Amino acid sequence: MQDRIEELLAELDLAGKLRLISGAGLFRMAGDPAIGLAEMPVSDGPSGVRGENWDERDPSVSLPSGTAIAATWDPALLGEIGALIAAEARRKGVYAVLGPTMNLHRSPLGGRHFECFSEDPLLTAEMAEAYVRAVQAHGVSACPKHYVANDSETDRFTVDVHVGDRALHELYLYPFERTVEAGAWMLMDAYNAVNGTTMTESPLLDEPLKGAWGFDGVVVSDWTAVRSTESAAQGTDLCMPGPPYLWGEPLAEKVRSGEIAESAIDDKVRRILRFAIRVGALDGTPQPTPVFTDAQAQDVVRRVAAQAMVLVRNDGILPLAPGTKIALLGPAAGEPRFLGGGSATVIPGHTITPLAGLDGRLPLTHTAGVHLSEDLIPAPLAIVIDPETGEPGVSVRYLAGDTVLGTQHRTTSRLVLLGEPLAARSDLVELHARLRADTAGDWQIGFGGVGHIRLDIDGETALDENVALDSGDPAAALLNPPQRHVTRTLAVGDEVDVRVVTSIEEAMPGLGIILGATLGIRRPQRADDEEFAAAVDLAREADVAVIVVGTTEQIESEGVDRTSLRLPGRQDELVAAVAAINPRTVVVVNSGAPVEMPWRDDVAAVLLSWFPGQEFGAALADILTGTTEPGGRLPTTWPKTTADVPVLNTTPVDGVLDYTEGIHIGYRAWLRAGIEPAYPFGHGLGYTTWSTNDLVIAGRTVSLTVTNTGDRPGKQVIQAYLSRPDSVIDRPVRWLAAFTAVTLAPGESRIVTLTLPRRAFEHWGPDGWEIEPGEFTVQAGTSVTDLPHIGHVC
Ligand code: BGC
Question: What SS3 class is residue 20?
Answer without folding.
Answer: helix
